[in-house]
Amino acid sequence: MKFYTAAAMERAMKIQEVILRAIGKRITWWQAAEIIGISDRQMRRWKRRYERCGYDGLYDRRRGQPSPRRVPLATVEQVLGLYREKYFDCNVRHFHEKLGEEHGLRLSYTWVKLALQGAGLVAKRRGRGKHRKRRPRRPLPGMLLHLDGSRHRWFQDDRWYDLLVLMDDASSEIYYAQLVEEESTRTVLQALREVVEQRGLFCALYSDRASHFFLTPKAGEPVDHERLTQVGRALRELGIQMIPAYSPQARGRSERNFGTWQGRLPQELRLRGITTVEEANRFLRQSYIAEFNRKFAVAAAESGTAFLPAPGRDLERIFCLQHERVVNRDNTVRWENRVLQIEKTPWRATLAGCRVTVYEHLDGMLRIGYGPHEVGRYTAAGMPVRYHHRGSGPPPARRVGALTPVALRAPSVSAPTQRGARS
Questions:
Q1: Labelling 36: which of 66, 125, 251, 368 has CA 20 to 30 A away?
Q2: Architecture of the 144-296 domain
């Protein structure tokens, strides 16, 4: 008994239970054979062995004994010696044929291959890739969008740029395509904001695992869905799911799309004499994206759309870089070697020691928010943007995102007074 493993003992107990049920007439012997997975004839053998030897007769008697089909050690040494000394440059199939034709050794090809690999004389071949299937398109536009960048010499010179493209999975329609110096958090947020403003909220975004999309604790491991990047935080606020791709093959649809871009856009830019990024992006927006969609977009499987409107969403606040800071005792916030002075508010004596959020907008403007209130706006250089108010005293507190970027650049006299404080 001590020579049998726990798995062998468990199997014997299960067989005994089935035999006892058959003896007790609870099941037939034919059903017992079906349960164990053996033939009727083998079941009769098990019955006789149990009647003769009891429980010990249910163990496999071959355990611990050498296989009768085992190749002798002398043959193994002969095969390995022949390969080392005479057939060292033959592949396994050729060597297997020589063993039978020249030396009369009738061995299976699999055994010969495993013996050579086990001895280190033949390297193991890389296993076949797993069977892949093309993923069907989503049935409605707006259910899944692909976002990726392609680095290429788009002007056919020494300059490299990233082409950032947002494509719909259902129809391959391009919603956004712009040349940028480098794919980054800012450029990605700009692309997403433009699509949400023009089309509405979509369901999911499919992208690679770049650091501005996901945080990966260790290379090759799954991404961390709890620690969000700036892009992840913005999309979570909008209720958009982020799906990471773990291989280039998983992004096959967008990769093939970039092959088309690389084969056409550089020639189109050359034929039109376009040599700057500004001119190229203007050409993309005004004409080429529409032309590209006419040629390569396909009809969605179903009519309708999955895009939803985004009324009441403060997209200016969502699609920006947010950083938490603690206000100093002199009501200043230090941010990237700049000192941002917070003016006095009518609803709180001081903000010293409070935790505030610095909103870095895509156009370079800065805001400081405390809860729902805006307590300061600044230029990219850190200079405060001042508003003129009727009467004296500090400006009233505002809700974050209450003013548009146009109002920031050219503030009106009456707008702040009309809105008033809503603290």
A1: 66
A2: 2-Layer Sandwich (3.30)
